[in-house]
Amino acid sequence: MKVVETNFDADELMIFRVRRHWFVLTIEVLGVLLVALMPLVLYEVLLILLGSFGTDINFPIGITFMAGYSAWLIIMWMMLFNIWTNYYLDTWMLTTKRFIATDHIRLFNRSVATFRLERMQDVTVTTKGILPTLLKFGSLEIQTAGEEGNFEIRGLADPEELKAKILDAAGTASKEMYGGGDGI
Amino acid sequence: MIFYFLVIFFMIHAVVLAYHWKNFGDSKKVTVSALAVYLLGGAILFLAFAFSIYNI
Description:
The complex is a heterodimer.
Chain A lengths: L1 H4 L8 E5 L3 H32 L7 H29 L1 E5 L2 E9 L2 E8 L3 E7 L3 H6 L1 E8 L5 E8 L1 H20 L6
Antiparallel strand pairs in A: 1-2, 2-3, 3-4, 5-6, 6-7
Chain B lengths: L1 H23 L3 H28 L1
Helix pairs in contact in B: 1-2
């Protein structure tokens, strides 16, 4: 994130950046594809119904449907890229000093939450269900002291590894700040 | 009429997406590639739309 990275301290380094699991994106894309294909099914049903009633159609139904369906596909194409944009711009960044959560809710609506690692109190990982267990994705909850409150990230790829990295970075940050214990 | 409305809507959407990718994305390469795919896919769909309208 260029906007976020320009606000880094001079001695602050990015450890890693993570996005949601690919499965979350795939499910949303499949939903759009299903909706995109629906007019084809409806068209076939309409043709069968018109055929069974023996209705005489005196306008080019095929090409009219194709015009409408092309317009429909253009709208679906735009929706697909909205979904991808939400996925691509939703990122979580761990630096040597902070954890930065960028939540891209929709176009022109995003929030960036930050907390310093030494203020972190607890990290909880939840993996619920068969698919999340097999595909290694789940949610991660971070409790912090003070005004920042709690962070919850859902559909995260490999949350266990992320937890380990956050705890490791938090330990190092606490040692640097307090010069001793791990502070967690 | 619907065709021109959709073209304008699509172009505004493309500009909005490009603005978001450029300002909040982490890679220029991804931004340019995504925009190219988006515009190319859109162009194909608009050609199909124009062809169908022309033949009605």
